[in-house]
Amino acid sequence: xxxxxxxxxxxxxxxxxxxxxxxxxxxxxxxxxxxxxxxxxxxxxxxxxxxxxxxxxxxxxxxxxxxxxxxxxxxxxxxxxxxxxxxxxxxxxxxxxxxxxxxxxxxxxxxxxxxxxxxxxxxxxxxxxxxxxxxxxxxxxxxxxxxxxxxxxxxxxxxxxxxxxxxxxxxxxxxxxxxxxxxxxxxxxxxxxxxxxxxxxxxxxxxxxxxxxxxxxxxxxxxxxxxxxxxxxxxxxxxxxxxxxxxxxxxxxxxxxxxxxxxxxxxxxxxxxxxxxxxxxxxxxxxxxxxxxxxxxxxxxxxxxxxxxxxxxxxxxxxxxxxxxxxxxxxxxxxx
Length: 336
What we know:
Blueprint: E1 4-10, H1 14-26, E2 30-34, H2 40-43, H3 74-87, E3 92-94, E4 96-104, E5 107-114, E6 119-129, E7 150-151, E8 164-168, H4 172-183, E9 187-191, H5 206-214, E10 219-221, E11 224-230, E12 233-238, E13 244-248, E14 251-254, H6 263-267, E15 281-282, E16 287-288, E17 293-295, H7 310-313, H8 316-331
Parallel strand pairs: 1-2, 1-6, 2-3, 6-17, 7-14, 8-9, 8-14, 9-10
Antiparallel strand pairs: 4-5, 5-6, 11-12, 12-13, 15-16
Helix pairs in contact: 1-8, 4-5
């Protein structure tokens, strides 16, 4: 365990990278730890997916993001954020998972596990939790959810040609999965607990899904929930009258969203609002009520992480680094 890092960032998604870039620009010593590859969350997006935001709203540190289309593709974003990492020469420890964080006399001690099984230990004066939420899907909580045919992630429709597929949800992820499966030759049934699609569905795909439903090309069960998943079928229950229906099924895509897992914050004693799930923090600095412990990205959204996007989460990095710089200056220690 060598030296003390000024700023340790847990998570190297876009918002974590934003902290690293701000630190580099201000001369603050910073190391990012990521249990997968950089922007692991984006790597898991649908293969042919596009962002809601325009390219300029995904930029970090003033580095231009040039996109062929109005809405950048997954592939373009992955390429851009790799360029960010190289351009700013960020110190990113990929495939090194933080497994424990504890308080110490001079800040924090982080213990990590690398892909090869070896372990690491680091001291840091300040820690930023930027772990996102993509690793923690909202489960249906029904029998059979652990069957191999069930997934909470969607990549592409090609493998599901001529298969009976149930898509659970009514938001963007569910709609895009349903449309892509349909175009790939799958027989699709959309199941949603409400009586209409979510209001946030992208306006340019809404006419497409509406038309497919009206023509019967994509079946839909409104005000309906999945109550059991069986090897060759799915059992549905109507919210209107409680009646049940069994439909034949090969694959289930539970596109029910994701939630942050603030275990690191809890382990360090940070306060979390029980009603909103939002960690207690100063919005001007993103510092929690544990001195030296900061949050960045969707963790700050609590139970409504969709309120935080790259375009507003990227603002967290400069706030955090300003606070860290001020704290370091106050101690009379050189920055960097």
